[in-house]
Structure to design on (206 residues):
């Protein structure tokens, strides 16, 4: 039979063992909780980092696209300005040369040759030769070069120089009009419906 001291020692051992087991269990649970929390924190931090990286990537991409778009717009603007400057320069030079030609002795011969060409294209019909207002002084020379009766009228649409011709309506003039169109003698044609229909018919018959 155990004496009182032995019973007290066994009781103390049991309490100590139970305390140690509880301590180990608490330590294990604490470790598991900490590890689980760390894993969750790592996962959350990773997700947040990925989201931040993606936002920054999108912002950089948008900024790059804006930069590229602005550069393209500026390049197009510079190209348009350059083309405009070249066009102005080319047409400016051409205008100066044409203007100089209209003031030369050969300009009158050019108008007369053009009138003779119109006469060949329009063998019949009431023909009107149009010139710029300042060239009406050549009206008699143009009529003479045309070789038969024609009208010479001024046109504000002709600003630099040269001339163009038109023929009045009528079925007998369709072939002449078609020939004039083929030869690029006309840039504007005003005629009646019958003549226009006949010109189209002749064109379709070719």
């Amino acid at each position: 039979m155990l004496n009182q001291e032995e019973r007290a020692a066994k009781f103390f051992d049991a309490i100590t063992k139970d305390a140690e087991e509880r301590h180990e269990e608490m330590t294990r649970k604490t470790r598991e909780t900490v590890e689980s929390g760390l894993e969750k924190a790592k996962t959350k931090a990773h997700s947040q980092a990925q989201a931040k990286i993606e936002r920054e990537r999108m912002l950089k991409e948008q900024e790059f696209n804006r930069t590229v778009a602005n550069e393209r717009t500026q390049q197009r603007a510079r190209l348009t300005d350059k083309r405009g400057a070249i066009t102005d320069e080319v047409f400016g030079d051409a205008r100066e040369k044409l203007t100089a030609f209209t003031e030369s002795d050969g300009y009158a011969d050019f108008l007369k040759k053009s009138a003779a060409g119109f006469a060949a294209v329009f063998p019949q019909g009431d023909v009107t030769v149009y010139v710029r207002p300042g060239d009406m002084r050549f009206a008699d020379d143009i009529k003479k070069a045309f070789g038969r009766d024609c009208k010479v009228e001024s046109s504000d649409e002709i600003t630099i120089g040269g001339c163009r011709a038109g023929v009045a309506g009528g079925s007998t003039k369709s072939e002449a009009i078609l020939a004039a169109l083929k030869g690029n003698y006309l840039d504007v044609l005003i005629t009646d419906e019958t003549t226009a229909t006949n010109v189209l018919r002749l064109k379709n018959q070719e």
The chain is about 70% helix and 5% strand. Strands lie at 127-131, 151-154, 163-167. The mean pLDDT is 81. The longest strand covers residues 127-131.
